């Protein structure tokens, strides 16, 4: 096998990163934009010690699960990797990804039910982050998404997975920024003012918060006037913020944000609770699918009468707030202090008085207390939990851990560790939060050894 070699092969299944898997001369080959049961001619693009990568030269016989993408940009945009696959089959593939990952990484064999679908498969994404640059010659602003495996921006005029109003707002930014002498950012030279435009859209009421990330330490009259114009031009825009990030980094947000026009937050409703969402608030991008997850967790909580609950990696304490009315006490722990401040506002907004909030690392907090909880909810970032936080969770939890994960690989690693400590994995339920991508959310219920 050599780079550039071509082979005719059948795609066997999908990897946990959304690429097709086949075997050529005994070697595992990952094929982009491939669907299980495709018969294809592939071209080898990269070879490593244990696998190879390939692109499709020709689809000889398409899988019965192949469909026409509803977005004309799907093949060149890096956002919806699986849009060419029938949605119901996407759900089956995500179910299989979870099952295979638990087995291969975690040595866990458990029945994994079918992925619970998203209520919406179009216009579902309610947090949108546009990187912004400009053309070298005409200085025309570009705003959209990165092309696959690059930082080249694909100028997106229409995106069917987000609310239509977002297309209108970003087009306004593209067309009008130059009138205010605002240029697009060049990450190679670190020149230009406008780095990103971030929209938060309420699925409950349609309100929008716009944040413009500026390559500067503070605002200018031009950036403030542009923010005001943006606010006045769109009735649904309830606030425009400026965030300042003058570092040469891939991190989107800088530390300082000001509100220039309107409010610095919007509200969102999940089940019967109302939440405030600011410019940099961590909140689910698909609120309706998130409701499915919260409902599932809440039903599991209800199996224990008035439990005390630890809500770890809490963000703005969303899980704690949702389950507070079926708990005796909830302790929400989150290392980001600004999230805890937002959570305080949300508690007042919903008249909740049985939640304690702590701005601290989960492991450090647990090491500092002697209290035990009936149930612990873990909702870590993609990197999962540290062994230290898992050990402390076991010491401080009486009966059950509910682990909410956005990454099957780190979930499998952490479950293997917990199983080695005597825990029993009783159920793993996948949810589709990011339709048409390989990403999958899971809720795992873990029972502790009562003898410990």
CATH architecture of the largest domain, by name, is: 3-Layer(aba) Sandwich
> Count of DSSP helices?
9
**Name of the top-level CATH class of the largest domain:** Alpha Beta
Mean pLDDT: 95
| Unreliable stretches covering 5 or more consecutive residues | none
Radius of gyration: 23 Å
Structural class call reads alpha/beta
Helix content: 10-25%
Q: In one word, what is the shape?
A: globular
Topology:
Layout: E1 6-10, E2 13-14, E3 20-24, E4 27-31, E5 39-47, E6 51-61, H1 87-106, E7 127-134, E8 141-146, E9 153-155, H2 164-176, E10 194-201, E11 208-214, H3 221-233, E12 237-244, E13 256-262, E14 265-270, E15 273-278, H4 287-301, E16 308-312, H5 318-323, E17 329-334, H6 337-349, E18 355-359, H7 362-367, E19 373-378, H8 387-396, E20 397-405, H9 408-420, E21 424-431, E22 441-447
């Amino acid at each position: 096998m050599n780079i550039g070699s071509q082979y005719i092969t059948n795609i066997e299944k999908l990897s946990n990163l959304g690429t097709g898997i086949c075997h050529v001369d005994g070697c595992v080959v990952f094929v982009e934009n491939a669907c299980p049961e495709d018969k294809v001619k592939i071209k080898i693009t990269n070879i490593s010690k244990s696998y190879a990568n390939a692109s499709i030269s020709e689809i000889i016989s398409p899988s019965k699960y192949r469909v026409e993408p509803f977005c004309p940009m799907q093949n060149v945009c890096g956002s919806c990797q699986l849009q060419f696959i029938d949605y119901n089959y996407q759900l089956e593939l995500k179910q299989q990804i979870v099952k295979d990952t638990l087995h291969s990484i975690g040595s866990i064999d458990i029945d994994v039910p079918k992925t619970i679908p998203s209520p919406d498969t179009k216009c579902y994404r309610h947090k949108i982050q546009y990187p912004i640059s400009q053309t070298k010659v005409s200085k025309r602003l570009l705003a959209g998404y990165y092309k696959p495996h690059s930082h080249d921006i694909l100028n997106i005029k229409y995106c069917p997975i987000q609310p239509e109003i977002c297309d209108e707002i970003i087009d306004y930014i593209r067309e009008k920024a130059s009138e205010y002498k605002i240029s697009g950012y060049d990450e190679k030279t670190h020149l230009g003012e406008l780095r990103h435009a971030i929209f938060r859209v309420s699925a409950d009421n349609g309100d929008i918060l716009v944040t413009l990330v500026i390559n500067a330490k503070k605002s200018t009259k031009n950036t403030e006037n542009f923010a005001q114009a943006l606010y006045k031009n769109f009735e649904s825009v309830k606030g425009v913020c400026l965030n300042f990030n003058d570092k040469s980094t891939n991190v989107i947000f800088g530390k300082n944000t000001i509100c220039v026009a309107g409010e610095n937050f919007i509200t969102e409703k999940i089940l019967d609770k109302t939440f405030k969402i600011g410019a940099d608030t961590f909140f689910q991008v698909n609120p309706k699918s998130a409701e499915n997850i919260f409902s599932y967790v809440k039903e599991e909580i209800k199996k224990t009468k008035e439990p005390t609950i630890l809500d770890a990696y809490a963000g703005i304490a969303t899980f704690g707030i949702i389950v507070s009315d079926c708990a005796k006490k909830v302790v929400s722990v989150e290392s980001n202090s600004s999230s805890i401040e937002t959570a305080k506002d949300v508690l007042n907004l919903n008249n909740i008085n049985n939640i304690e909030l702590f701005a601290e690392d989960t492991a450090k907090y647990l090491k500092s207390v002697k209290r035990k909880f009936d149930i612990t909810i873990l909702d870590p970032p993609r990197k999962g939990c540290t062994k230290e936080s898992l050990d402390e969770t076991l010491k401080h939890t009486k009966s059950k851990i509910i682990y909410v994960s956005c990454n099957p690989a780190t979930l499998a690693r952490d479950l293997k560790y917990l199983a080695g400590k005597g825990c029993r994995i009783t159920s793993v339920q996948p949810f589709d939060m990011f339709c048409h991508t390989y990403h999958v959310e899971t809720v795992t219920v873990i029972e502790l050894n009562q003898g410990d």
